Amino acid sequence: MEMFTSIGLNHFLTISAILFSLGMFAVMTRKNAIVILMGVELILNAANINFLTFSKYNGGMIGVMFSLFVIVLAAAEAAVALAIVINIFKTFKTVDVSSVDTMKE
Amino acid sequence: MFEMPSGAEIQSIISTLRAGAGYFIPEIYLSALFMVLIILDLVLRGRKNRILASATIIGLLGSLYFIFQQHGLPDTEIFFGMYALDRFGIFFKYFFVLTGVLAVVISIEDEQLNGQDAGVGEYYALVVAMVIGMMMMASSTDLLMMFLAMELVGLSAYVLTGYLKNDKRSSEAALKYLVYGAVSSGMLLYGFSLIYGLTAQTNITKISMELIQHGYDPLVMILATLLVMAGLGYKMGAVPFHFWSPDVYEGAPTPITAYLSTGSKAAGFALLMRIFFVAVPHVSEGVEDMLSIDWLTIMMIIAAASMIYGNVVAIWQKNVKRLLAYSSIAHAGYLLLGIITMDKIGTQAVLVYLSGYLLMNIGAFYVIVTISNKTGSENLDDYKGLGKKMPLAGAALTVFLISLVGLPPTFGFVGKLMIFSALIAKGDLFMWLALIGILTSVISLYYYMFIPLNMFLREADKDNQAEVRTGMIPNIVTAVLMILTLYFGLFFQPIADFAGYSASMLGAVLN
Question: A69 at the B interface (CB within 8 A)?
Fold first, then answer.
């Protein structure tokens, strides 16, 4: 019972691993560019949870600092990504990545 | 957990930062250049593409002075172990500034890029931003700084790839680059978080000490290794993380293709060498059990796969930019060979190889731009008979391709020779890798020589035999790059010496 009643390091790590896997799953299976970018956000946040957890259990503020920077970077990346997706929508009239595939071997 | 620092502590932090800034002048200068370029773009009216380009070239060349000033400074870690100033970093600073200059030189010629109605805008500013990012990738000694620098390079590169907004191929290339890039940087970050969890440190020297003192869980280390390698392999364009490169190289504006395939790739290698030589060198010794997959084995597999895949698939390519994309995958394999030797000769060989790759790869792309300006095509079939119409371009492209194959008397030969001799000096398993490298070089001879074959020995389909006039500046630049490739093939000693001198990293033990 102990394992279920008190929350420890492993619980956090499991959550982050699940989040990472869900993110990878979204990236690999979805066709919509926006959903793929959402998957990327899940991956980044999984890493963030890891950093915060390790920071809490290792002591020190390095992990917290790291995740703060990652949050800011994720926002910057989302801005650039959405600009590119909007441009794709203007030229291709779709955001489906499987139909944005004009270059072939 | 966290207490407010006292006044004295704040004073000491400020003085450390101020002392660190003295070692950070090239980057500060380039950041100022970045802002000046944005303002210039806003202030100037009319035909400003040439002015912006010249300002960028002058500004970038100016930074060489500040980098030169750093030679006298002692090797140090600055900004609380975030950043290093060492000879290895200085070599790459020179390298990236020169890459940036050459990328701008190609951009001036590219008519597709300059023909845009809206003008080039922030294009050159972003090129400078990439130079800063790549410099920081080569010099950072902290996982956080490494990640930030990689993202700076990545974000600028995504925008530059999609810079031809109305061109379908360019937009598509940007999307593919972005999706693969974002996923791989996410994986890299997850790998970093595991390393941080193992060691409670983010500075690579401290990580190394922590791993030696307290040991590590091999399973977690393998997972972290694979994730970090995925992120770096994407930057280096090595198999199996290469899926983006053919499409991106084909679709991106040609100057950016040249820039990505030399600058961004070299930055990936610089970062890999820092992590591999400083943070985890002993990890590569391997734990004696079933799970003894370590950094070294993984890199060996990646190197062999890249060489074989890149060279074999390139045979069927019909587009020159695509062909060079596959060739650059193969070159990533050769460069990895130099890294896995893990000694001073190998590192020196990698640095020499990169310098050669800079000249020959950028040269090849420069000629491709001049040709596609005249013919409007990058298809191999359209190169038929061009050798007679554009003799200088034809001769220069042939030299660059011979250099890419690695035949004497070119710079490419020197680089390959050094890498293979470093491998053979290590013996045993490394000998087999050298053998794969030599055999795949033979394969590469076939597809590279297909281009001169079309240019010189086959006649054009149309009866258009008139000589095509190219401008004065493109001719001079082509000739200079060609002569340099040949010159350094014969007199490589200064570069080899400088590379040997630079093969020394803060905190790494190489012998």
Answer: yes
Distance of alpha carbon B438 from alpha carbon B337, whole angstroms: 12
Task: Reply yes or no on domain A2-92 having CATH 1.10.287.3510.
Answer: yes
**How many domains would you assign to chain B?**
1
Q: What b/e sequence results for B103-117 when a residue is b if at least 16 CB atoms lie within 10 Å of its CB, and e otherwise?
A: bbbbbbbbebbbebe
Which of B246, B258, B263 is closest to B368 using CA atoms? B258
What is the pLDDT of chain B when averaged over all its residues?
A: 89
Q: Express each pLDDT in B72-128 by its tens digit.
A: 888 888 888 899 999 999 999 999 999 999 999 999 988 888 887 777 878 999 999
| Cis previous bond, B409, omega within 30 | yes
What gap in Å lies between CA B173 and CA B158, rounded to an integer? Answer: 9
- Asked whether residue B303 is domain-assigned, the answer is yes
**Is residue B4 included in any domain, yes or no?**
no
Rounded to two decimals, the ipTM of the complex is 0.95
Q: Which residues of chain A neighbour B201 with C-beta distances below 8 Å?
A: 62
Domain ranges of chain A: 2-92
Indicate whether B319 belongs to any domain: yes
What are B472's two structure tokens?
């004065």
Taking an 8 Å cut-off on Cβ atoms, the answer to whether A105 and B148 are in contact is: no
